Amino acid sequence: MSDRTIKASWVLDGTQETALANQSIVIDGGKIASMEQGAGDGLLVMPPLANAHDHARVARLSQVGSYDVPLEAWLPYLTLIPAVDPYLASAVSFGRTARGGVGSVMAHYTRVQGLTDFPTEAKAVAKAARDVGIRMALAVHCRDMNPLVYDAHDALLADLSPAACECVTRRFLRNPVPAAEQVAMVEAVAAEIEGNGVTVQYGPAGVQWCTDTMLRLIGESSARTNRRVHMHLLETKYQRNWADRNFPQGIVKYLDEIGLVNERVSFAHCIYLRPDEMELIAERGATIVVNTSSNFIVSSGVAPIAEFIKRGCRVAMGLDGLAFDEDEDALREMRLAYAVHKGSGFDVKFPRPDLMRFATANGRFAVTGESGSQVAPGSPADMLLLDWKELSAELIEPDVPPFDMVLAKGKQSHVKGLIINGRDVVRDGAVTGVDLPAMEAELLATMRKAYPTTADVRAAMPELKGALRKHYAGQFYCG
Ligand SMILES: [Zn+2]
To answer: What distance in angstroms lies between residue 294's CA and the mean position of ligand 1's atoms?
Structure first.
């Protein structure tokens, strides 16, 4: 096998804040064979970023008129996105993810296109990830209760006009597939698609959306098979309210009792965790995935990262399909998370080494179950190559630390390359495995063409949104 050498002007190896200057990194197959002093060629090399909570969605909020809608009212808007070919949708999503500097992604597959049976769709998603070349965990969505709100929906339906009620009933209130069947499906899909960069996880939507039967089954199966689990937890104050009413012993204690708080599990959001719950999560070694942009955009709140870190929780970064500028810029997401959570004055709440792990290793662990994500001899040849010439073009002081420059201004336009398992996934800023611009154009045309198929739900949406606001706005919340 032929070796190749990356000439890095700087290397952030993922374990320290200080960068190593002028390194020749030799790649042999899927591994980094050696790294030694050499001549740099204008690249800053660091571990790829990880997006540990995403949904492989392709439509941006503003595309379907759902910008600035709180989460509980926003979720039904997803129905406005027409079903499209799952390979096309996933290839676009993973291609954009790679272009944004991400090497491992959690695809919590909450939106099934449904044009074929699910195992066929899952194969298409796995093929898209492999064609693009990033590491992907397909967290298979499991859900069997509370289709509309977190409690009974009778009163809400009674508030709607007959036409809107008919549409909402038809679109949202289908009988769920029995829990045991959904759980068995995960194993069947895993047997078909796992391997070669793709893994399968259990993806229960969240405690408010899954019966006790389903969650227990997942806890038992995960313990037996070692399969990882990814789920939403306490994303909004309304979910906290629901959890406190339904689990007097505490929702995290409940999850722990049924085998769903451990190293195999990652929880997205966790904005409304209490200190004792953070401690339990830290003790058990589960991962918390914070989605800073998403939390702002769908009005969920601000996650207490400093409190998580203080208690020793493993915290990872997610984009949740809702990056701040409606792109997939993971470098900007890292900057935003740092700016929001670093603390005030000289009181440092988000130390740089924690930030690096947050953006890289911790998310990679949540996705792949493998620890270690460093640019070092013997490690997998996974590297993000940034344009140091561009990043440093305006420097006056020549010795500004490279990590400062990444944090100050790094964005996806600085992504020159992404190497995963020794393969060029992004080269000269372009995705190599699929024709992303052509597929994006095809997808947009397909969605525009299919948009009339969602006219019924679009017509019902203003009423539904109003009814949801009424349902939640009056709820008592004890913060
Ligand atoms: Zn999510």
So the answer is: 8
